[in-house]
Design brief:
501 residues, alpha/beta, TIM Barrel, Immunoglobulin-like, four-stranded antiparallel beta sheet, 21 strands, globular, disordered N terminus
Length: 501
């Protein structure tokens, strides 16, 4: 968000602009409101279904790594600590920023290592952070979505230290300078080709569970010293490719083309991983009635309602970074509006601003605001989860993580299924138990992406979500009943395999 003006009308994307300029049923197939488990009840509890996601921002070292001078071991220890705390809080999905600005937080031949890792663009940190993050997230039963920024190129202050193969160095003709930032021009076909090549490379080489783009399409408008909007310098691109359309329509068409292309090309490589976008939370002022604020449709050329209605995403996570009560940007009013727009049946998992909880500003959230927003989402029939921004504020400040782990996210939950990607459940595994050690034997056919394990002991039922390669699992002492179901990558759940003492 831009500071200090009107933070209630802007997005996480604008916050990153500010920061970077200074240095986003028993079968388990039903979507249910999480139900407390009674230890005295011997009936198997249902498997909860809810998106409980969290963004980890790497740009400007917002969340991780905390410093550009950390050793490999220190970086890894920090990330393990974040993931361990996330698991303890009850989260089930990590959205890790891996391409902040035409650079890479992973091993890439297409773009240089990100400066945020070592202080020097192009310098290896000594390991592959994305591969490491995937391994550690999966080991904790959490999905890992790779968060990319399709068109951000960085800050003008960094251009003297940029190295090939950053586009600024190898295709300067595709770069536009806008205020203090550089952008890869979305209207240039070669830019879209390059960004899709980067995304496709990640999808092919890494065992991710989703691809995620945020709200940086065209840049948020910056005013000059006289208070007048600075135009984005794409007049030559428009003259070449505009084909007689109005400038705004042409820009929106560029972004639409990229969104649908990302959706189709990612699924052509791996049909069942999820594709998500987290746009600015207001599509257009007045939608719904009474909502005011930035017009993302007109100013950053993001027709996010269209993407949702056309089914060009598997989930949309609009950044609803406002409180429930203020009418100009009411969380619940916007939540209801966005849920109603999902006519293609795609998931709507709104982003919540944990960074605003007692942040010392005049518009800070109370300690109860985020929990109240999670409860409000659950009260809607099609409200199936949220994403939290960001990791530092979610896990390390104001006790929110304790509230999540002890109450809202106390019992483990599977990510809601995406049956349009695949509606066929996997086969049930075979299981055996000896000395409180569970052995899972996968069935033939489709491989299990996850195992949903429910076990009963004297203190009641425990639900755990485990990665599909985990076949030997320690159970709570004295377990007398175990139910195991295979879960595929689209979230379909097999019938249960059961063991009783």
């Amino acid at each position: 968000m831009f500071f200090p003006i009107s933070r209630c009308s802007l997005s996480r994307g604008a916050l990153l602009v500010c920061l970077t300029g200074a240095a986003a049923c028993a079968s388990g197939t039903d979507i249910t409101t999480p139900t407390p488990i009674n230890p005295a009840d011997t009936a198997a509890p249902p498997i909860q279904r809810e998106m409980r996601g969290m963004w980890i921002a790497t740009v400007a070292n917002i969340d991780w790594p905390s410093s550009r001078s950390l050793s490999t071991a220190q970086q890894q220890a920090e990330l393990v600590d974040i993931l361990t705390k996330a698991k303890a809080a009850g989260l089930n999905t990590i959205v890790l920023q891996v391409r902040p600005a035409g650079d890479a937080v992973y091993q890439s031949s297409l773009e240089p290592w990100a400066k945020l890792l070592t202080g020097t663009q192009g310098q290896s940190p000594g390991y592959d952070p994305l591969a490491f993050a995937i391994q550690e997230a999966h080991a904790r039963g959490m999905e890992l979505h790779a968060w990319i920024n399709p068109f951000r190129g960085g800050n003008t202050s960094d251009t003297t230290t940029m190295v090939a193969p950053h586009l600024f160095k190898i295709r300067r003709d595709l770069i536009r300078v806008y205020a203090s930032d550089i952008w890869m021009d979305p209207g240039e076909p070669d830019v879209q080709d390059h960004s899709m090549q980067v995304i496709s490379d990640i999808v092919r080489r890494y065992d991710i569970d989703g691809v995620h783009a945020d709200d940086y399409f065209y840049p948020y408008v910056v005013n000059d010293n006289a208070g007048k909007p600075i135009p984005f310098p794409d007049s030559a691109t428009y003259a070449k490719y505009g084909s007689g359309r109005a400038l705004a329509d042409w820009r929106r068409a560029n972004i639409d083309r990229f969104v649908v292309r990302m959706y189709r090309e990612v699924h052509a490589i791996k049909p069942t991983i999820k594709v998500g976008i987290s746009p600015f939370g207001i599509w257009r002022p007045g939608n719904p009635t009474g909502i005011s604020g930035l017009d993302a449709y007109a100013s950053i050329y993001a027709d996010s309602r269209k993407w949702l209605q056309q089914g060009w995403v598997d989930y949309l996570a609009p950044q609803l970074y406002w409180a429930i009560t203020p009418p100009p940007q009411s969380y619940t009013a916007l939540l209801d509006w966005w849920l109603a727009q999902s006519t293609a049946g795609r998931h709507v998992w709104p982003g919540l601003a944990t960074y605003r909880v007692q942040d010392g500003t005049s518009s800070q959230f109370s300690l109860t605001e985020i929990p109240d927003q999670i409860r409000a989402t659950r009260q809607r029939t099609t409200g199936t989860g949220n994403l939290l921004y960001n990791a530092t504020w979610t896990l390390k400040k104001n006790g929110l993580a304790t509230t999540l782990s002890s109450d809202l996210y106390k019992d483990a939950a599977l990510v809601p299924a995406s049956p349009w990607l695949d509606a066929v459940p996997p086969n049930s595994p075979s299981i055996s138990v000896a000395s409180d050690l569970l052995q899972i034997t996968p069935a033939s056919g489709e491989a299990a992406r996850w195992w949903a394990v429910r076990s009963h002991a004297s203190d009641g039922w425990t639900t755990r979500i485990l990665f599909g390669t985990d076949h030997t699992v320690a159970l709570p002492s004295g377990s007398d009943r175990v139910i195991v179901q295979a879960v595929d990558q689209a979230g379909n759940v097999s019938p249960g395999a059961e063991w009783r003492r």
